[in-house]
Recover the amino acids of this structure.
């Protein structure tokens, strides 16, 4: 996929199949209005289909990752059911992040608030700046967390911690996110993108088929039984073992043992 720049979503290729998708509304801390949300849906759908892309970095332009939905637009669409807006504007991208066959790294600077938290939680790895934080601000305007945030948080944190985060809208610092298992790495604010790029290069050095199968196995394991998970693992293992990549890596390993 070539570099693509429009007013709302920037797509840029780094190297070795790594691509960056940037939400570009820094003047409103990357809050998602309808055009931006739809542009992000389309961008991620195109990325998911591109076999040349091996890893995705999702980020926000400027000082924040994403401040959530644009409330000014939300008020104008007050008569439209929230479920319809979710299904049209936000859920396509969130589902795409979780189901595409390549890993997604969220590079979080500043605030990830509201639905912005859901994009972080839908990613496969998370790098946060030291001053970054997650905040489920929904309850402050009489709403509940959405975009799958409840599903992710109760599985990662358990009910007690998830309830506090949602019911009190408590900002969760980067350090706390790391301790709770909501982030993989913390970096100085000006090094977040570099750390995300470093992780991306580590990921693309792995077997692409095994990486894709690992993501699928872990995603599905959160929703099915142990027995079904073990069956799926066996099926995916057969697919990996039949690949040329597996044969090449085993041969290289054996050669290295002989040295």
């Amino acid at each position: 996929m070539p570099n693509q720049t429009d007013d709302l979503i920037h797509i840029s290729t780094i190297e070795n199949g790594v691509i960056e998708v940037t939400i570009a509304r820094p003047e409103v801390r990357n809050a998602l209005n309808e055009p931006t949300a739809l542009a992000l849906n389309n961008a991620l759908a195109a990325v998911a289909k591109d076999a040349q892309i091996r890893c995705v970095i999702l980020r926000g332009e400027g000082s924040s990752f994403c401040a959530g939905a644009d409330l000014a637009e939300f008020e104008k669409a007050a008569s439209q059911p929230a479920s319809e807006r979710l299904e049209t504007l936000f859920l396509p991208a969130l589902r795409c992040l979780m189901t595409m066959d390549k890993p997604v790294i969220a590079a979080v600077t500043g605030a990830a608030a509201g639905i912005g938290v859901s994009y972080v939680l839908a990613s496969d790895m998370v790098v946060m700046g030291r001053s970054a934080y997650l905040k489920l601000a929904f309850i402050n305007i009489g709403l509940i967390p959405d975009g799958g945030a409840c599903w992710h948080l109760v599985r990662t944190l358990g009910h007690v911690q998830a309830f506090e985060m949602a019911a009190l809208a408590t900002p969760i610092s980067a350090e706390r996110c790391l301790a709770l298992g909501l982030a993989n790495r913390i970096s100085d604010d000006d090094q977040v993108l570099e750390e995300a790029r470093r992780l991306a290069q580590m990921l693309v050095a792995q077997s692409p088929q095994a990486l894709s199968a690992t993501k699928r196995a872990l995603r599905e394991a959160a929703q099915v039984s142990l027995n079904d998970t073990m069956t799926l693992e066996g099926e995916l293992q057969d697919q990996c073992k039949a690949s040329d990549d597996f044969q090449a890596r085993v041969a290289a390993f054996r050669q290295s043992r002989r040295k």
User: Anything to note?
Assistant: Residues 2 and 18 are 12 Å apart (CA to CA). The mean pLDDT is 93. The first strand starts at residue 4 and ends at 5. The two ends are 40 Å apart (CA to CA).
